[in-house]
Specification:
The protein is built from 16 helices and two strands. The chain is mainly alpha-helical. A two-stranded antiparallel sheet has the order 1-2.
Length: about 450
């Protein structure tokens, strides 16, 4: 039968551990040989852990050293730790790093305080009086908030000092400076634009009240327009309009000037009736041309009515340049006119006769001339009676008298009398001849 065989197998399986395990246990319980040891796995694991920790610490210290935010104190201690042992690295990370960081952060706050404005200095001093958390909060946020306040204050002060700022802007700016950081910000973001617009409109109104026609017209258009129109008028329009008013005033002055000629007057009036461009064109182009034309006409008039010297000088000026024309009108005409007057005066003055020598008796030869002309025939053919004088010759009304001595008339009067007498004698003789022939 098969049953006994199966039981034998099971019995063997049951007895096997009893046979095997005692032998193993006895082997384990046997003493080991003296001087022989197995591998120390615990020591190797500890050594590996220390090596890995050192590598990790070294990497962390190197990272801190490379960080731009690390301060000088942290850098110095980190470098010292890198040059030391694993214990130095661990001591730096666990002890020195927090102390060094706080010290460097306080140095940063001190530097910011020294260069900051009033708000920054106030916030920095408050941080110094607190914990390291307060220091960190100032460095992360507080300094920027305080700096913005200082920047706002500086900007408001600049606006207040600007001469271009109007009264409304100045008043609001001063009020903001006397307030809080929020007041400064509100002024810059809201009030400034509003006050500037009001002040600029007031400026335009003031310019309108004192300006000329063109300025008033442009100012009125700006006031009736947008704020952009106001700004454009203040920046450009007022000056363009003022130039037009100045040009108009200058043209009016030229028109009222008595020295302006007809051509200038006509062109000036035409410009006044035109645009701003017409006024400018007249002053820059037409005025000089019309003045030259009028001056040439004036020289022509003087030449036509003047004497020989004036005609000659005027003709030379007309043949020359405009500078010659101006010189003639300013000086030349007067010099030439004086020359003409002198020549006319010389021509109107009688030419004195040649003087004669006295005779030994002291009598003037005019006496002999008077005696020769004694028989003067009148217009009716009669002969006048001879007149005899002793040393002098007397003349009736209409006749000249000459003395034998120099009594004030001199040789001129005697010569003239002789010439008249001789002429009269010639006339009488001629008439007698014609009467005899008839």
């Amino acid at each position: 039968m098969k049953l006994p065989k199966v039981s034998a197998v099971l019995a063997a399986a049951a007895l096997a551990p009893t046979v095997l395990f005692p032998s193993m246990a006895s082997a384990a319980e046997q003493p080991k040989p003296t001087g022989v040891s197995g591998p120390d796995t615990a020591s190797d694991a500890a050594a590996d852990h220390d090596s890995a920790q050192e590598a990790q610490d070294r990497a962390e210290v190197q990272r801190i050293l490379a960080n731009k935010e690390s301060g000088p104190g942290v850098r110095e201690a980190a470098q010292k730790a890198l040059d030391g042992t694993a214990a130095d690295l661990r001591h730096f990370l666990e002890v020195e790093l927090p102390n060094r960081r706080e010290h460097d952060d306080r140095v940063k706050v001190a530097q910011i305080l020294s260069a900051g404005g009033p708000a920054v200095q106030k916030a920095a001093n408050a941080a110094f009086g607190g914990t390291h958390e307060d220091i960190l909060k100032f460095l992360k946020e507080g300094q920027y908030t305080a700096r913005a306040e200082d920047d706002d204050r500086a900007e408001v002060q600049r606006i207040l000092a600007d001469k271009a700022s109007g009264p409304g802007v100045r008043e609001a700016a001063q009020k903001a400076l006397d307030g809080t950081a929020a007041d400064l910000r509100h002024f810059l973001e809201v009030e400034l634009a509003e006050q500037r617009q009001i002040d600029n409109r007031v400026k335009v109104a003031q310019i309108f009240s004192t300006g000329g026609p063109a300025v008033q017209k442009a100012a009125r258009a700006a006031l009736n327009g947008t704020y952009e129109d106001i700004l454009k008028f203040l920046k450009e329009g007022q000056y363009t309009a003022r130039a037009e008013d100045d040009d108009r005033a200058e043209v009016q002055r030229i028109l009222a000037d008595k020295a302006s000629g007809p051509g200038v007057r006509e062109a000036a009036q035409k410009a006044l009736d035109g645009t701003a461009a017409d006024l400018r064109h007249f002053l820059e182009v037409e005025l000089a041309k019309q003045r030259e034309d009028d001056d040439r006409v004036e020289v022509s008039k003087l030449m036509s009515s003047g004497g020989p010297a004036v005609k000659k000088a005027a003709n030379a000026a007309l043949d020359g340049t405009y500078a010659d024309i101006l010189k003639f009108l300013k000086e030349g005409q007067y010099t030439a006119r004086a020359e003409d007057e002198a020549n006319a005066a010389a021509a109107a003055k009688p030419t004195p006769p040649a003087q004669t020598q006295n005779t030994g008796t002291g009598q003037d030869q005019s006496t002999g001339q008077a005696v020769q002309a004694a028989n003067v025939v009148s217009t009716t053919g009669s002969v006048s009676a001879p007149v005899t004088t002793t040393g002098t010759t007397a003349a009736t009304s209409g006749q000249l008298a000459a003395t034998g001595v120099d009594d004030g008339l001199g040789w001129e009067a005697g010569g003239a009398a002789a010439a008249v007498a001789a002429g009269a004698a010639l006339v009488a003789a001629s008439r007698r001849r014609r009467s005899a022939e008839s």
